[in-house]
């Protein structure tokens, strides 16, 4: 297949592209810069210049493709409304091209939220509509199954970790530890986060694009629920600073914008995904990556 990948040079995309190529697919990767184009070419894929705001480039890529993997997102936490708007417009554009073709559309999403328990792949995500997180695009994509699109929701753990350049949530927690001279968790730190190594995630994405039925919801989750106090302790050990509890009222000052997420209890099961797709994560855990210096060197 020719697979069109948005975010092809990004943290997850740069791991997914080699997996797709190793599976025998050809890859067309959306890129925004000469540097990204060079990286995608070096990986063995064909670059396509464009962006989420350049809807014509999205149409062009989707029209050529046998399948689409949509990983790109602005992730602008200073202007969440704009990120959501751009995401919804991009997904609407891609779905319009794919409608009636039964071609695969794999969408990067997040795990749903079920306070007090592990959320499963069978739990519906309540986020729907243009004002919802990510522009409600998971619901939008799954609704497109009725329009003849083989939509697949890739629900990524909030932490997709590994060595070499993650710019997500954990680096923000590490930076707060550097800034404050202490690695913090919120309250008692019993709240849990799921995590997945980017290499394990990439393997699952490549498998899903070929085998996942229309309407599938996959949990791209390696570890179902790590207590944030344990993650903070690993960061403190790696940096050589103490680990401390931060009162919820003081969390914004200590952590910055990440505070609202770092205090959430958001574990997610991977049991159904492992069973349905014969997938077993084998790469280092988050705590092992932190201990190895992946986030502190």
| Strand segment tally | 12
Identify the CATH class of the largest domain. Alpha Beta
Helix % is 25-40%
User: What name does the CATH topology of the largest domain carry?
Assistant: Rossmann fold
Which structural category do the helix and sheet elements fall into? alpha/beta
What's the main sheet like?
7 strands, parallel
Amount of beta strand: 15-25%
Radius of gyration over alpha carbons?
19 Å
Shape: globular
Annotation field: number of helices: 12
Overall number of domains: 2
- Uncertain segments: none
Give the mean pLDDT. Answer: 94
Domain NAD-dependent epimerase/dehydratase: 3-212
GO molecular function: aldehyde dehydrogenase (NAD+) activity
Protein name: Nucleoside-diphosphate-sugar epimerase
InterPro entries: Epimerase_deHydtase (IPR001509), NAD(P)-bd_dom_sf (IPR036291), NAD(P)-dependent_oxidoreduct (IPR051783)
């Amino acid at each position: 297949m020719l697979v069109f990948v948005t975010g092809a040079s990004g943290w997850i995309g740069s791991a997914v592209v080699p997996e797709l190529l190793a599976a025998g697919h050809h890859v067309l990767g959306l890129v925004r810069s000469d540097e990204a184009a060079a990286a995608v070419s070096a990986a063995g894929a064909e670059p396509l210049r464009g962006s989420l705001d350049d809807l014509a480039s999205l149409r062009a890529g989707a029209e050529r493709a046998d399948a689409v993997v949509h990983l790109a997102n602005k992730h602008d936490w200073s202007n969440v409304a704009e990120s959501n708007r751009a995401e919804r417009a991009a997904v609407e554009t891609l779905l319009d091209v794919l409608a009636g073709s039964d071609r695969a559309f794999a969408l990067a999403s997040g795990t749903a939220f079920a306070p007090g328990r592990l959320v499963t792949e069978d739990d519906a995500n309540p986020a729907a509509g243009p004002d919802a997180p990510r522009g409600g695009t998971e619901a939008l994509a799954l609704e497109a199954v009725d329009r003849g699109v083989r939509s697949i929701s890739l629900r990524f753990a909030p932490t997709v970790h590994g060595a070499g350049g993650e710019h997500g949530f954990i680096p923000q927690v590490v930076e707060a530890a550097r800034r404050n001279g202490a690695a913090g968790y919120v309250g008692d730190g019993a709240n849990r986060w799921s995590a997945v190594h980017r290499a394990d995630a990439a393997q699952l994405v490549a498998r899903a694009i070929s085998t996942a039925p229309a309407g599938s919801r996959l949990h791209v989750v390696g570890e179902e629920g790590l207590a944030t106090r344990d993650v903070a302790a690993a960061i403190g050990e790696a940096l050589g600073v103490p680990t401390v509890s931060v009162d919820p009222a003081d969390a914004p000052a200590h952590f910055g914008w990440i505070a609202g997420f770092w205090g959430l209890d958001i574990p997610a099961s991977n049991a159904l995904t492992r069973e349905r797709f014969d997938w077993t994560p084998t790469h280092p855990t988050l705590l092992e990556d932190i201990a190895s210096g992946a986030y502190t060197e």
